[in-house]
Amino acid sequence: MRAHLSEILVLLLAASGQATFAQESHIGGLTGEAMRGKQLYRRYCVGCHGPLGDGRGENAQWIDPKPRNFVTGTFKCRSTPSGALPTDEDLYKSVTRGFVDSNMPSWLPLTAQQRADLIAYVKTFSSRFSEEKAPSPLQVPSEPEANQQSIQRGNELFQKMNCWSCHGKEGRGDGPSAQTLVDSRGYPIPPYDFAAGTRFKCGESNQDLYRILMTGLDGTPMPSFANGLTPDQAWDVVHYIRTLQINSKRKWAKKENVQADRSESKRAGEQLGGRAGPL
Amino acid sequence: MRAKIKYLYLGAVATFVLLTSYSAGSRTVTTIRESPAAADLRVTRPDSPEGAVLSGIVKVAGPQPAATRIDMAADPACLKMHPAPTMSEEVVVGTNGALKNVIVYISDGFGNRSFDPPTEPIELEQKGCTYSPRILGMRARQELKVINDDPTTHNIHPVPQNNREWNMSQPPGSSPIDETFAREEIIPVKCNVHPWMKGYIAVFKHPYFAVTGKDGKFVLKGLPAGNYTITAWHERLGTSTQKIAITANETKEVSFVFEAH
């Protein structure tokens, strides 16, 4: 009898090893299932991202920036190092937030479970998700005070790190290299214009800005600065680039950010039915 | 009793699954062992004194395209390093049409033979706001060290189709960036900060590749006997292939002529 049981165990292990299509996502306490996500994808996403997930849906030709190609496993908004896969939470946040200045809307109208299912299905388009594991997310250290000295240091780093080559001396997206930039598929891509005061692609808070600097936006000309900036220096750059947002209606004092983060995580918590931690 | 039969059934299925996966695994191993080229497996390094030698020259025919001038004014730090005007190195032609920066490699003929990647890393330097070398041949899973010798910040951005894409900023004086590529591919490399900077990293699973110098010459040494496809690739002039048969320890010459356009 015992021998049979061990054989059953072996059978179960063999089955789990071979079922590569059964991709799951894990977001907080939620488990997304690819099979359920497929139905949702066919209804909401296929028009732009295409049935093969290669970003060649029938609407794609009318869209700029182009829909993401999921097959290469390259994603802009990550908490993981440049070149690495994003975490399930990263993808979940992108689907939830949507992308400003693009045709990708926020999918908050879907339930948290539905969004988790979609992430599980999106992961089936790239073999990378079954071959590699997303590394642990970058730790964002607590933010030091944004004072005049920090802003000044950030200004010097903005010059030294050649941020101005693309973003321009005043952060208006008009640096000497700006016109030459293309994304990894060869489409022109403008550098972010800080003065325009629009939202950032990968989140709103200073923590999100810190993360963008240190992980880069893969698939675009924006590199990761993890090799060249210490955490304190990255914070200095964050503080400096806030001063370039001269047309932003929002005040970026530290206290307000904390409040904004709280209300955001509260909303995410409600969506998850209180089962998951803040996202 | 009924439960026991059920377990027996499951056990049989499990054994079947195990056996099939085991035999599938061993089949691959057998194929490699039975491969006709197996006798030559000891000749797996281009620096080996044994094996065939394949050498030749790559030329370009017809009117040569004029080199374009590079304007580095966008970054004064780069401009300062080049008192004389800098010309694009896209097409570099030596005497008698000899073509530089062509990567010549075996593109087919090794079947599923595998070659261990070298343990020593290979270097790509950013020097004078250009890549050195412009065309870098390396092995899959070999360590790549990217070095910044310039007094300005670069970003190193390989744009692969078949490998992980990454993009790292590298300020002056920072430590080298260590990376690897898993699959064969010729990958364009850019520095988005300095749009004139262009390079290519050619990744191979075997050691039989060479980049032509200004004399257009290449040598592939230590080749096992066999039938191969040999390819010459140039960033602007495209690819050219030839089929060759090479016997043990033979010395063979192959030449390529690209049409200028």
Offer a quick outline of the entry.
Chain A is mainly α.
Q: N-to-C terminal Cα separation of chain B, in Å? A: 81 Å
Estimated share of beta-strand residues of chain B = 35-45%
The largest sheet of chain B is:
5 strands, mixed
Radius of gyration of chain A: 21 Å
Number of E-type strands of chain A: 2
Which spans of chain B of ≥5 residues are poorly predicted at pLDDT below 50?
15-43
CATH architecture of the largest domain in chain A: Orthogonal Bundle
Question: What's the CATH H-level homologous superfamily of the largest domain in chain B?
Answer: Cupredoxins -  blue copper proteins
Structural class determined from secondary elements of chain B: mainly beta
Q: In CATH, what is the class of the largest domain in chain A?
A: Mainly Alpha
* Radius of gyration of chain B, taken over Cα atoms and rounded to an integer in Å: 24 Å
Query: If you average the pLDDT of chain B, what whole number results?
Result: 86
Annotated CATH architecture of the largest domain in chain B: Sandwich
- What's the SSE pattern of chain B? HEEHEEEEEEEEEEEEEEEE
CATH homologous superfamily assignment of the largest domain in chain A: Cytochrome c-like domain
Structure characteristics:
heterodimer, A: 279 residues, mainly alpha, Cytochrome Bc1 Complex, Chain D, domain 2, 2 domains, 11 helices, 2 strands, globular, disordered C terminus, B: 261 residues, mainly beta, Immunoglobulin-like, 2 helices
